Hints:
The chain has four helices and two strands; from the N terminus they run βαααβα. With about 130 residues, it is mostly helical. The chain has one domain. Helix 1 packs antiparallel against helix 3 (about 40-60) and helix 1 (about 10-25) runs parallel beside helix 4 (about 65-130). GO terms for molecular function: nucleotide binding.
Amino acid sequence: MMWLVGSVVDTAIGCLVQSILGSFFTKQMEAWTHEIGLAEDIKKLELEMKAVERVLAAAEGRSIDKPLAQSLGSLRELLYDAEDVMDELDYHRLKHQIEKGEHLLLLRRLSFLVKAAVLLLKKEATRGRAN
């Protein structure tokens, strides 16, 4: 039995690739992966996703046999796994961003406390000179 590329399996693959490319390869993610040393790996992944897109586009509307259809099904499952990994990586990016923000907040609080202490010391020094 021959099937056409463009079936539900191929549509799912195309949607997964678009999801990964669209939601993951953002400026924030690019900056973070560069910061933690994963930029090169992520760039390779992006190139692979685009290669999958090109293969699907080239095969669209062509007849395929059952083994190729099964391979496309396997590819779909792999892309679901890849999407899960990407979601987990995005979670870690957000967690890192929050932790970094918490550190900045603590630094701001510390800075405020130091400035307040300096002002109090200056006030006390001025008061001591007046007596």
